[in-house]
């Protein structure tokens, strides 16, 4: 049981790292890329959903309201990719199979 738990704990960083990049037709998209970089590398998304606004604290201690969007790409090999942007910066990459 301890060996199984140890193996799982070792593999967790690899799973987290795998979702921090996405290969597109003309390049690799990474977290913190801008919407224009993603659009240039991956093309126009299947859909763009505006999710609202979020208040974030900047490096100087000021709060700003930024737009939150989710872009969808796919299917590629049966997988859909969902990219979440906050203030025009990529903050999350998810991949899921749709039924």
In short:
It is built from two helices and six strands. The protein has 99 residues and is α+β, with helices and mostly antiparallel strands. The protein has one domain.
Characterize the structure shown:
With 99 residues, the protein is of the alpha+beta class. It has one domain (2-97). It has 2 helices and 6 strands; from the N terminus they run H-E-E-H-E-E-E-E. The strands form 2 sheets. The chain has a 4-stranded antiparallel sheet with strand order 3-4-5-6, with helices on one face. Strand 1 (21-24) and strand 2 (27-30) form a beta hairpin. The chain is globular and about 45 Å long. Mean pLDDT is 85; it is low at 14-18.
Helical content stands at 25-40%
Tally the structural domains.
Answer: 1
Strand order of the largest sheet: 3-4-5-6
**Alpha-carbon distance between the termini?**
35 Å
Number of strands: 6
Radius of gyration: 16 Å
Sheet with the most strands, sense and barrel status: 4 strands, antiparallel
Poorly predicted residue ranges: 14-18
Number of alpha- plus pi-helical segments = 2
Tell me the β content.
over 45%
**String of helices and strands:** HEEHEEEE
Outline type: globular
- Mean pLDDT, to the nearest integer, reads 85
